[in-house]
Specification:
heterodimer, A: 208 residues, alpha/beta, Aconitase, domain 4, 7-stranded mixed sheet, 32% helix, 18% strand, B: 468 residues, Aconitase, Domain 2, Aconitase, domain 3, 3 domains
């Protein structure tokens, strides 16, 4: 994904607070040692209808199963999205389902970091801004698009409201350059080795 | 300049700082488990990357492994065995110390990291698990991460991170009878919301904490993540030093000098926190959760809130949906609500003190015939010590299954869950929708409350049972 150019995508609103990573993907859906093929498990508690604990059908009422939202690439949610378990499968499942951006009032810390490591953009907006975007979609589901200019840290709504958002400058750089965090830190190996040398003298008890 | 305990440890681990550059923070130890550790090592292998210091990396099998007696690599979870064997093969390949399934040192990572002296005061430990914060009880920074950051720590011995804001949560005075640290955290989260600690590292302090046995402090720090905090930490004291002395990976030489240094690890008297919370211990009652978030908790003799008390329409909707799932009504009391299952286990409440407290209630009592009761000690060490004290016999005589250590039924690990609509009283940490199985209704509580409820066949306070 090239984040250095403007991006336009379709939103699906899921305005619930505290959506935990167990909801994004339940433990039972993490079946293999692979970051791929997790789409089926995304929001599995909501995506399907169950009988006696077994999936029996798609839940047509769930937003991502509704006509007009099937190709959504942006999720719009509430407070503390991605709280709970550290499972990175939550991010992989979202990506596997074509989600590129999550907009919310706030995020679980580990989830937000996991997103950045996987080039899934998280954007924090205020309650009013989120409500405004949601009201546009409610009024007409065809209004469910926004433009995102990452370089300018700007979201433009379908009625041309401009919302600025904040992003850590280093994280933004990594998005724009599509760079890997480990590669970046490996380039600082000399500094790390120097630190360890000094630290070993000070805290020899911490080294095995 | 004065600083908090967290800031002191953070600063002493800061490798690199710069504009539009990340803070690189040195990490002393990395702990892996078979669910995400297998991913991390597999991914490194595929990328041809090596561990920076394998001596500082440890692994266990806790997330997927079965807890049935006589277990092996087979699990009820489809494909689960693959995680276990991959973890084992890759631990060997990367020279990582593995506490394998039948190793006498085996157990839940956060328990054995303490038991083995792997986590030390003033250090930073990481694990691809959100409950790594548990280890803050030893005066260390327990930093929970995802798989990618775990790989980062394995390859570079560092993590990238911004220093969180600082919060001090003080508990003052004597706790009421029958109140467990679990109740303290449910009280805190209910009062200040499940996202109340978001963006903060929390130092727990006050005389309640100072007087608290070390084992209970782990429970407190463990639940910091349920408050959405970066981590929880408690200044290390003599209890911590006594606990760590002569542990397998604790320092062997210059012990008194090292503990002298550790004793200096405390927030300065004039350190400024970004937020302060003060709680009178006497205000805390044994608590139980009623909904789908730990903030949905009430004192055991209280009532579920009335919808008319809630103004925000979306919050109303959330509560209605939670209550629908839980099969409960607004204003209802939880006391005497019939239960199907009682579970004691997890990194939150499965240490020796927890099992002792539950055993006190179970002694000369029987689990109600309608209730399935299961106990999984947190580690092989906890299990051995409990068996030495005859606690296993008390549990078994009462009608509890006495299992092998692991994360177990806290989250459907090992592919084992409860049945749809079964009502479970559980000593674990998360009452999320479907956490313990599709449609399962989980009520968080202390091991004491779980034990008392198992006997009664319904949710009851442990105090009543003890007094009888």
């Amino acid at each position: 994904m090239n984040w250095s150019t403007p991006y336009e995508g379709m939103i699906a609103p899921l305005l619930i607070d505290n959506i935990d990573t167990d909801q994004i993907i339940p433990s039972r859906e993490m079946k293999t040692i692979s970051k791929k093929g997790l789409k089926e498990g995304l929001f599995a508690n909501w995506q399907y209808e169950y009988a006696d604990g077994e999936k029996v059908a798609l839940n047509k009422e769930f937003i991502l199963n509704k006509k007009g939202f099937l190709n959504a690439e942006i999720l719009l949610s509430g407070k503390n999205f991605g709280c709970g378990s550290s499972r990175e499968h939550a991010v992989w499942a979202l990506k596997d389902s074509g989600i590129k951006v999550v907009i919310a009032r706030s995020f679980g810390r580990i989830f937000k970091n996991n997103c950045a490591r996987n080039q899934l953009l998280t954007i924090e907006l205020s309650e009013d801004q989120i409500e405004h975007i949601n009201s546009l979609i409610k009024r007409n589901s065809r209004n469910n698009k926004v433009k995102i200019y990452l370089k300018k840290k700007l979201i433009i709504t379908s009625d041309d409201e401009n919302y600025e958002f904040d992003i850590d400058p280093f994280v933004m750089k990594m998005f724009l350059l599509d760079q890997d965090f480990i590669e970046h830190s490996l380039s600082k190996e000399k500094e790390i080795d120097e630190f360890v040398k000094t630290d070993k003298n000070k805290r020899s008890w911490a080294y095995l | 300049m004065s600083s908090t305990l967290f800031e002191k440890i953070w600063k002493s681990h800061c490798v690199f700082q710069g504009e539009s550059q990340p803070n690189l923070i040195y990490t002393d130890r990395v702990f892996l488990h078979e669910r995400t550790g297998s991913f991390a090592l597999k991914s490194l292998k595929e990328r041809g990357l090596n561990l920076k210091n394998p001596k500082h990396v440890f692994a266990t099998m806790d997330h997927i492994v079965d807890t049935f007696p006589g277990r092996g690599d087979e699990t009820l979870m489809p494909g689960g065995k693959q995680f276990i064997t991959t973890m084992r093969d890759l631990a060997k390949e990367f020279n990582v110390t593995l506490f394998d399934i039948n190793d006498p040192r085996h157990g839940i990572s956060h328990l054995i990291s303490a038991e083995q002296g792997i986590t030390l005061p003033g250090s930073i430990v990481t694990c691809p698990d959100s409950h790594t914060c548990t280890l803050g009880a030893l005066g260390a920074i327990g930093w929970g991460v995802g798989s990618s950051d775990c790989e980062h720590a394995l390859v570079t011995s560092t993590l990238i991170g911004k220093k969180p804001r600082q919060m001090k949560v003080s508990f003052l005075g004597k706790l009421n009878d029958g109140v467990n640290p679990k109740d303290m955290m449910l009280h805190l989260i209910e009062k200040y919301s499940v996202s109340g600690g978001s963006g903060y590292a929390i130092e727990f302090s006050g005389d309640t904490i100072e007087n608290m046995p070390l084992e209970n402090r782990f429970t407190l720090c463990n639940m910091a993540v349920e408050f959405s905090a970066f981590t929880g930490i408690i200044a290390p004291d003599q209890k911590v030093f006594d606990y760590l002395k002569d542990r397998p990976y604790s320092p062997k030489e210059s012990w008194s000098e090292i503990t002298y240094h550790w004793a200096s690890l405390a927030s300065d008297d004039d350190a400024i926190f970004d937020k302060y919370i003060e709680i009178n211990a006497s205000d805390i009652q044994p608590s139980v959760s009623w909904g789908l978030s730990p903030e949905h908790s009430i004192p055991i003799n209280g009532n579920i809130p009335e919808l008319s008390d809630i103004k925000n329409p979306e919050k109303k909707e959330e509560i209605e949906s939670s209550l629908g799932y839980m099969g409960l009504k607004t204003g209802q009391s939880l006391m005497n609500l019939p239960i199907d299952v009682a579970f004691i286990g997890s990194c939150t409440n499965a240490r020796l003190d927890d099992l002792r407290a539950a055993a006190k209630i179970l002694e000369n009592n029987k689990v109600s015939p309608d209730v399935l009761a299961i106990c999984t000690p947190g580690s092989a060490d906890v299990k051995r010590n409990a068996e030495r004290e005859g606690i296993d016999q008390i549990f078994k005589d009462a009608g509890f299954e006495w299992r092998e250590p692991g994360c177990s039924l806290c989250f459907y690990a090992g592919g084992e869950g409860f049945l749809p609509q079964q009502r479970v009283i559980t000593s674990t940490n998360r009452n999320f929708r479907g956490r313990q199985g599709q449609g399962v209704r989980s009520h968080l509580a202390s091991p004491e409350t779980v034990a008392a409820s198992a006997v009664a066949g319904k949710i009851v306070s442990s105090i009543k049972v003890i007094k009888q």
